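Our working data are protein records whose layout never changes between entries. Getting from the letters to the tokens is the skill we practise here. To make this concrete, we reproduce a full record directly below:
***
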Amino acid sequence: MLTPNIDLQNKSILITGAAGFIGANLVMELLRDTDAVKIVGLDSMSDYYDVSIKEYRLAEIDKIAKQKKASRWIFVRGSIADRSLLERLFQEHYFDLVVNLAAQAGVRYSITNPDAYIESNLVGFYNILESCRRHPVTHLVYASSSSVYGTNRKVPYAVEDPVDNPVSLYAATKKSDELMAHAYSKLYNIPSTGLRFFTVYGPAGRPDMAYFSFTNKLLKGETIQIFNYGNCQRDFTYVDDIVTGVRHVMCNAPEKQNGEDGLPVPPYRVYNIGNSHPENLLDFVDILQQELIRAGVMPEDYDFESHKELVPMQPGDVPVTYADTSALERDFGFKPNTGLREGLRKFAQWYKKFYF
């Protein structure tokens, strides 16, 4: 196991995408468990999905921040594509760590709205890298995605596997981020770690994700479409497990060292963070409907079968995601382990409280 080389106490941390699903949960975790820390949260508050959920997350952060008198929480509304804004923030706050979670997410949306992905995922991430070059940080941690594995047939997906066959622009931008981070690590000795997240879910999650959108549609009496005729498998990872993994990584920056040529060896790593237990979509839907009934979101006599439609695979999708997390276990002694039923139960309980 690695020995942590960063203590988060009294550090200044930039978290982009701070009103997003993973970002907000990370901010709350850091505020709860760190005695004194300064966190600057940056988010554009994009209307890609219901902004009221982002506002709810920020309100939850504020509740915790008010109880942590020794810590500071500063929220800034803005985009990582705004280079001058980033420059001002880096000059003002002297960041020790940067966690870049801001991105335009979604595979299918990238087919119809490619410009949003170029602006946020490429231009925005380039701006982050440039800021870290001009204002050196101890560690840059950034979100990649399981989508980079594309059409790989070998499962589970290991970080050593080739990732040269993206099947969506979203996946291509995330792979590009990894390549740019590697180049900047090599050229400017910036310690950076990329995290390939696998299908993150949980309370106050993204409404475009299957578990959330299925719930919304079923409540409206609409039909849910189950792709690839139900023959898809997803490595669903509960958000608390993702946040725990991110925190472990934050405290372990890749060491700077020189190679035999006297030049820096890139202080660069990539990890998968997934549950390592892919679930069939039909089983997933069955557990979801049971937990929606249990939470009182749906009536016990709801005719779920009449509201399901098995359809072909959609462009940009892949039949299976399955994380090999052995590197995460080796380096941090950590393995995501929240079961799907437990995670969906917490989501259903939150949904009942938020919408009813």
In short: Residues 81 and 124 are 4 Å apart (CA to CA). The mean pLDDT is 95. Residues 12-198+238-274+322-337 form a domain with the Rossmann fold fold (CATH 3.40.50.720). The chain is about 40% helix and 15% strand.
